Amino acid sequence: VQLQASGGGLVQSGGSLRLSCSVSGRTLSNYHLGWFRQAPGKEREFVAAISGRGDSTSYKDSVQGRFTIDRDNAKNTMYLQMNSLKPEDTAIYYCAASFTIGAIVRVATLYQYWGQGTLVTVSS
Predict the structure, then answer these.
(1) Tens digits of per-residue pLDDT, 76-102?
(2) Among 18, 45, 48, which Cα is nearest to 33's?
């Protein structure tokens, strides 16, 4: 499975960005997909995830209500719509795939495949 994230950039506080993650190599519906982020000097953290069929989602508390994760298995693509961005959202955002049976996982070590990351910078 190969993943490639795109859509990052520089935006002012309160603005919006939409990240995309193109996935190739396997049957996409067999994988939960997730977004993680890593800010300078900090550990990588969970942001959001969506089940293989797209019928279940999970969010980090601080992005709940501002970010929306979605996927289009026909297009082999996952999205992260980010609204009301804050400076603390500044980070490199990574997309990842987890071949996991059952509930969505929020732990990075349970994701087997990772994209290269896209930088999101929110200015105050």
Answers:
(1) 999 999 999 999 999 999 999 998 778
(2) 48
